[in-house]
Amino acid sequence: MSALPSEALPARRLPRLLAGLRADGSVALDEHLARLGPLPRRDLLADVEASGLRGRGGAGFPTGAKLRSVASQRGRVVVVVNATEAEPICAKDKVLLTHVPHLVLDGAVATATALGAREAYVVVGERAVHARQSLARAVEARAQRRIDGKVSLRVAVAPAAFVAGEETALVSFLSGRAAKPTLKPPLPFERGVGGAPTLVQNAETLAHVALIARFGPDWFREVGTPAEPGSTLLTLSGAVRRPGVHEVALGTPLDEVLAEAGGVSARPQAFLLGGYFGTWIDAARAQGLELASSSLRDVGASLGAGAVVALPVSACGVAETARIARWLANESAGQCGPCVHGLAAVAGALERLAACDRTDTRPQLDRWLAQIPGRGACRHPDGATHFVASALEVFAHEVRHHLRGSCTARLR
Ligand SMILES: Cc1cc2nc3c(=O)[nH]c(=O)nc-3n(C[C@H](O)[C@H](O)[C@H](O)COP(=O)(O)O)c2cc1C
Ligand code: SF4
């Protein structure tokens, strides 16, 4: 079947996901269907593959390939919508569930239907009160109207822990065990919730699927770059005039993204791209940087879960890094030695540097940053050490000042 006419959402116009967003509440089911119409029956797997959509939960894995892997398994499939988003500087999934919950639910139902799944779980974090309320109302409205065919939508509330959002932790939690990562293999698509092949997909990824299901892959590709098509949600914070969630085309230069958010509110010294597993980039290097994997890879970065923080010159990059490193260390699931002890040691060394105590902890930090990655059941230690390594490079000048007993941020 051909795609729906796209008058409701012209291909080149943004926002797409955030179109029709209400500041004061969520888009109700009637309004949602009046604007976008019901989900048509299409060959969803082929369309998602052709769209070039990549996951928006952090790793950027091609969604079409993931759907095929799950479809190739034997037995009844389970779909899991990952909207846990416990990272304090990310808000995109909470915004989607709070304001346009039916877009995410449409994506979950379309995917579940295409895979022959009967159950789709939406997992939301326990602290996301507004998102949980809006989601509960949306699921209830759909159940009353019986619009989801054979798919039954279930809401699960995950504990407020960063690692609870890791896919094997979600599988474990939904199977009645602790929300902690488990060793891979098996991967969720091989053995997931209750032993069934399971598709774990980020909430934003599925919201894109809902639009691809309606308007088709060519429509999706009308924005973004050929290698990375579509739009993406970014959560901007720090020294920006209009912080919050913004939708941009992939490949948009960072300067343009900032301009769209009202510009910077103070001179930035660096940007944190991708979130707490992300990469610090010096402000000079960030000039003209396009937000697409190909350009970001050149500077050792990625878009991750879409968080962008502008650090003003008046802030101390060393102190900010120490604060985040301690948060990450505290969020370890406490199961793997190199993660538990290694991240705590890294955070402690950074705290001493931040406090200007003149002990040169750099040799130990360098050793730990080389030893810790790849030695946990999940990628938590890898993400955390990558983040710290980028800080030691970008804030090297400031680190030297701290070792001489002074913090230049206090002087700026
Ligand atoms: C420590 C840790 C925390 C994670 N938290 C989230 C999360 O909150 N939301 C999310 O979608 N993915 C999270 N992920 C990534 C998931 O494991 C998984 O890759 C993702 O949900 C897949 O969806 P996608 O393909 O649509 O991106 C996390 C990964 C790690 C290692
Ligand atoms: S690597 Fe860390 S966060 Fe991941 S399972 Fe092991 S202890 Fe938990």
Describe the SSE topology.
Layout: H1 29-36, H2 44-51, H3 63-71, E1 78-83, H4 92-99, H5 101-115, E2 119-125, H6 129-145, E3 152-158, H7 167-174, E4 198-202, H8 203-215, H9 217-220, E5 231-238, E6 244-249, H10 254-260, E7 268-273, E8 279-282, H11 283-286, H12 293-298, E9 307-312, H13 317-330, H14 337-354, H15 362-371, H16 380-394, H17 396-403
Parallel strand pairs: 1-2, 1-4, 2-3, 5-9
Antiparallel strand pairs: 5-6, 7-8, 7-9
Helix pairs in contact: 2-3, 4-5, 4-6, 5-8, 13-14, 13-16, 14-15, 14-16
The protein binds flavin mononucleotide and iron/sulfur cluster.
How would you characterize this protein structure?
There is one protein chain. This protein has 412 residues and is an alpha/beta fold. The protein has 17 helices and 9 strands. The protein has helices at residues 29-36, 44-51, 63-71, 92-99, 101-115, 129-145, 167-174, 203-215, 217-220, 254-260, 283-286, 293-298, 317-330, 337-354, 362-371, 380-394, 396-403, and strands spanning 78-83, 119-125, 152-158, 198-202, 231-238, 244-249, 268-273, 279-282, 307-312. Strand 2 (119-125), helix 6 and strand 3 (152-158) form a beta-alpha-beta unit. It is globular, with a radius of gyration of 22 Å. The model has no long low-confidence stretch (mean pLDDT 95).
